[in-house]
Specification:
- This protein has 2 helices and no strands.
- By secondary structure, the protein is an all-alpha fold.
- The longest helix is centred in the middle third of the chain and has 110 residues.
- 0% of the residues are buried.
- The model has no long low-confidence stretch (mean pLDDT 82).
């Protein structure tokens, strides 16, 4: 009986050993997979660190760009102020030139003894009627005509 018990015990031990070998094989496969996953996670961590560095560099570049744009905005505001002042000066100069032109026109009119005012300088006028209209209209004497039918000359 003892040998039969020993054989049964030995058979159970062999069955357990084969299960243990199967479990060890599965455990080794899981360990290999886990090591591969850890390796992939380490690679991802390295990529994330590199990405974080790139984002920090981009953030610094954007801050520098923002500072440059703020400086440009200040320069453009200063330029706008300068241009507004220049436009104001040009408006004043335009008014002065208009007054000077008018003054010179009056002076030339008096010097040329042109009683009707200015002649047109436009050489495109070909019509004699339009040419006559290009003179300033003279003021006529507002007194009534003399009783004898003659027209008085202006004073």
């Amino acid at each position: 009986m003892l040998p039969r018990r020993l054989v049964a015990l030995f058979t159970r031990l062999e069955a357990r050993r084969s299960r243990l070998d199967a479990l060890t094989t599965r455990f080794d496969a899981v360990r290999t997979r886990l090591a591969a996953l850890i390796s992939r996670l380490d690679a991802l961590r390295g990529s994330l660190d590199a990405l974080r560095g790139s984002l920090d560099a981009l953030r610094s570049w954007l801050d520098a760009l923002r500072s440059w744009l703020d400086a440009l905005r200040g320069s453009l505001d200063a330029l706008r102020g300068w241009l507004d002042a220049l436009c104001g000066s040009l408006d004043g100069l335009r008014g002065s030139l208009d007054a000077l032109t008018t003054w010179l026109a009056v002076l030339i009119s008096r010097e040329t003894n042109d009683p009707g005012g200015f002649r047109t300088r436009d050489l495109r006028i070909k019509s004699p009627l339009l040419y006559q209209l290009s003179y300033r209209v003279c003021q006529q004497d507002s007194r009534p005509p003399a009783g004898d039918g003659t027209v008085r000359s202006p004073n």
